[in-house]
Amino acid sequence: MHSLASVSSEPADDLDVPVAARLRRLCQLLRVDGARLSNLLPGRPALVARAGIETPLAALEQRAAAAPGPLVIADTGQREARFYAGIGLPAEAEHPAQLLSLFDARPRSPAMATAIAALASEVLAWAVVKRQRRQIAVQQAAIADSAAMEQQRRSLFDRASATARIGIWQCNLGDSSLTWTNGVYDLFEIPRNTVVTREMSLACYTEASRRQMEAARAAAIANCSDFALDIEIITTRGRHRWVRLTGAVESRDGVATRIFGMKQDITEEKLLADRTRYLAEFDVMTGLANRSLFQHRLAEMDEQKGDVGALLLVDVDGFKQINDTHGHAIGDECLKVVAERLAETCGDARLVARIGGDEFAIMLASGVGVAEAESLAETVVQAMRRPVVRQGQKIQVGVSIGIAHHRSGSSQELFRDADTALYAAKAAGRGTSRTVTA
Length: 438
Hints:
Order of helices and strands: HEEHEEEHHEEHHHEEEHHEHHEEHEEEHE
Distance between the termini: 68 Å
Helix content: 40-55%
Strand content: 25-35%
Structural class: alpha+beta
Number of strands: 17
Number of helices: 13
């Protein structure tokens, strides 16, 4: 893995091919404009071989040489090398530390950029396998157990795939036959070396992911291009997993003949992203949308993207007194009940959000009339009048509601009108609603 003296697109025994030729093959495999292999010497990388286009890479190579892991930049902003990936190769007995640089004049999506770098790492892993094969051939006379030799030949490649939870797949478009590495078998929880078919693979996809993947695959085959997307599968043991799927089409005379790529388990990454997005957009205590998401949806009105016809601002009456009398823990319980009742009564709303300590907002779609909005407000007011029972205590909770209808003007004007209506409702004695038409 540490030197490109034996890199190829598949595990073959062509170890005497020059490094430049192997770099050209790697460019073809990964569909990039150029590749460079440099020795990492003190001061700056020293070029060993290159393939494809020539472009200044000194600054990017310096960054990659200093990076603790692979450096992958989907869009550098540079004209000559918009996409760049630098993969460091540690020193071996016969080779100094090296840097493999891949670059292209067109940018990639972040998912595809990561996929290209991962696929390059897989190809480099095969180099280890082939170099081991040469070593095994020398030692073969002294090693009687052929099964042990095979295990030694594949162990580093399998460990590299398992660590990154990555597998390589390919499909012959002539007969739809599939070839998987162990990483893909493990991802789908199908016994290794099982003869797999497209039908077996597709059966593990969720319906939505299957449709999305088939559409992307068909477009890539039709255009002899590539694709990258995240899909959801259910393994043969019933586990739900998220997979980053990449594919690239190989063609001959403009006709697609093979499609190949990478599948990587990104379940933990997906769960973390979903959790992060939830924390960014939703109120943890009540489960409703938070002020940030509310403001984003409201601002969409100004870009003519949103569908907001009316805005209701809801304020809990006398909430400070509830906190002072019963304590903040009981106060929080009351807010949770208010949120639950809003969600129950406003099921058709565009959005229900908590926008402050005891303040909530309801967005209604365009086309909702004045009478309909006022009827909903009255339903909310009546629902809140039911006492909240906590720790043996009955706590009376009421709300006041301000209603504004969007006819023209900005989102800020709509919010201001709803706020004016809310103050009017509180001035009218609370536990009621008032309307302002913009």
